[in-house]
Amino acid sequence: MPDLVGPVEVVGAGLLGTSIGLACRRAGLEVLLSDLSAENVRTASGLGAGRARRADDVPQLVVVAVPPDHLGAEIARALAASDAVVTDVGSIKTEPLRAVAHEPGVERYVGSHPMAGSERSGPLAGSAALFDGRPWAVTPHRGSTPGAVRLVEELAVLCGAVPVTLTPDEHDLAVARTSHLPHLVAVLMAGRLADAPPEHLALSGQGVRDVTRVAGGDPALWEQIVTGNADAVLGLLGEVRGQLDVLIDAVASGTRDRLGELLALGVAGTRAIPGKHGGPTRPMRSVFVSVPDHPGELARLFADAGASGTNIEDVHIDHDPGRPVGLVELLVEEDGAEQLLGSLESRGWVTHR
Amino acid sequence: MPDLVGPVEVVGAGLLGTSIGLACRRAGLEVLLSDLSAENVRTASGLGAGRARRADDVPQLVVVAVPPDHLGAEIARALAASDAVVTDVGSIKTEPLRAVAHEPGVERYVGSHPMAGSERSGPLAGSAALFDGRPWAVTPHRGSTPGAVRLVEELAVLCGAVPVTLTPDEHDLAVARTSHLPHLVAVLMAGRLADAPPEHLALSGQGVRDVTRVAGGDPALWEQIVTGNADAVLGLLGEVRGQLDVLIDAVASGTRDRLGELLALGVAGTRAIPGKHGGPTRPMRSVFVSVPDHPGELARLFADAGASGTNIEDVHIDHDPGRPVGLVELLVEEDGAEQLLGSLESRGWVTHR
Q1: Can you give the CATH number for the domain in which B338 is found?
Q2: Any domain includes B279
Q3: What's the pLDDT tens digit per position in B175-200?
Q4: Residues B88/B67, Cβ–Cβ less than 8 Å
Q5: CA dihedral A294, A297, A298, A302 (to 10 degrees)
Q6: B244·A240 Cβ contact <8 A
Q7: Number of independent structural domains in chain A
Q8: Cα distances (Å, whole numbers) of residue B100 to B10, B87, B105, B111
Q9: How far apart are alpha carbons B343 and B330 in whole angstroms?
Q10: Residue in A208, A234, A353 closest to B124 by CB
Q11: Which biological process, per GO, is one annotated for this protein (chains A, B) (predicted)?
């Protein structure tokens, strides 16, 4: 029998709040929405994410989904307003905990953080499926009651996510390394492109696009995230600075062994990232196929690929509107690549081995 | 009437050499292959990329496609061996030019560099379509004859690429910024993952994967590239170091304005990269669709998407083998997103707005 029966109050009807509302409604729970912006509440409500909160509503669980700078104040307000369990979905966990550590009722607070897309924002970008299959960090503090922890884990599962329990400190160290540092490194790289000559940028390939993509994220949000996790971020930035100095020395002095060691450490790092869904990394291979630019050709390709019995892990399309043929890259497990190639070739596709 | 009639000699039957051979053969030109590895020549030849070079062959154009460290020696050898025009396809252009600047016949040498995938290697990865729609830098030196330049440009066009003329110096500055620096920055980031605790890496999302992907490239090749373009790379690494110091100071002192400026410069940098095929960047939007894990569902999705008349620019699949539903992200021009969503919804797809 589930502990989580609602109502669930969602404070902040942006991308995450609206998505949580939609997921809870999908599960039949009552959802109460509030936001500084009445427009956001109307929009989220119109999408089916819940109804506007009324003064006499009594929530079972409050989900605080506001920008990092306001987490502490909103969590404290929610703890004082009722006896509900309170969680938040902010990107950092130690700072908001510090802010509410001495509030009455803090045993009812359990932080959390779904690892779901943040390049879009606002209630219109919300989706009940946003959390499907994603890790959702649950970060109890020492005083959190088991019942409160269970309720927050149940919310994560109800949203389709996979709860991962960490202490707030460990969480912040983890995201400093896997999210905040990559963002800042991408920002430093992208900054070197901002005033580059256009004739140089004309040689940009997929590599530089991938390395810099996340740097396009909202600066106002990232300013809060980085500031809120300053200690962990500074530790890692210091490590990068040390390695950058080693790199500069190695290149300047032509010490190729040292340069090679750094490059090899980078390869090891890419291999340390677990498979997309937490499993071990499986060796993948790209299969390239030329696809004529006619309606239905992509559909035919996927039909033929499906018929070969190979599981397609990811797809990239390189399609220039000015050319009659696009190049489609199908990412498959290494073991299945030859079978897929043979199957596609036997059906008349031009593959590139 | 074309100047390029062949034979084309390809020195080095790896990924690039084999691909050029395949493209030239597709156009009906005779192709002469050589490689330190007789096995590579046999493989490339078996794929239809040309035939083994004989001592009495007289090429019209020699394409040197060997690792960066050996470019100078092989270009010089080719210039001495016949009166053919000579080009190379290495990632750096000033160092090989310096090596051959005083060779007799250097007026017949014109450097070049196709901006095509290098994460795969060897003749088996070769493809006549590798260069389709890609920029191909052509880098004449002051003494290059117009006829030699024309011949190399014609090779690029014959391979399906778009020739971009740059001086060797400018080319090396351009790729230092758009290729070598992104690689090294990704390496520094990936290095911070190499010995990270697995429970931290469990929170890895798409961002850190994208930032670090290129760091998985062959260290032996990148050692040569970075060393060969050391001056340009060092200039940019110095800029990154300066900006890293500013970033560390801003985070350590809590100077949020300064941090915000750096983050905004990163956003500007991502916007400075031209569109995939040299055109202006068009605003794109992601459309998310839940796809049941049954054979044929992807094919049905692309059939329905095609029927909506919307051009799909790229696709990502987030598919967990353990779950019955995958999430497919379709990247389309912003203007067409609503039409695609409506069309897919009317056909019963679960979309995520």
Answers
A1: 3.30.70.260
A2: no
A3: 999 999 999 999 999 999 999 999 89
A4: no
A5: 180
A6: yes
A7: 3
A8: 19, 12, 9, 11
A9: 14
A10: A353
A11: tyrosine biosynthetic process
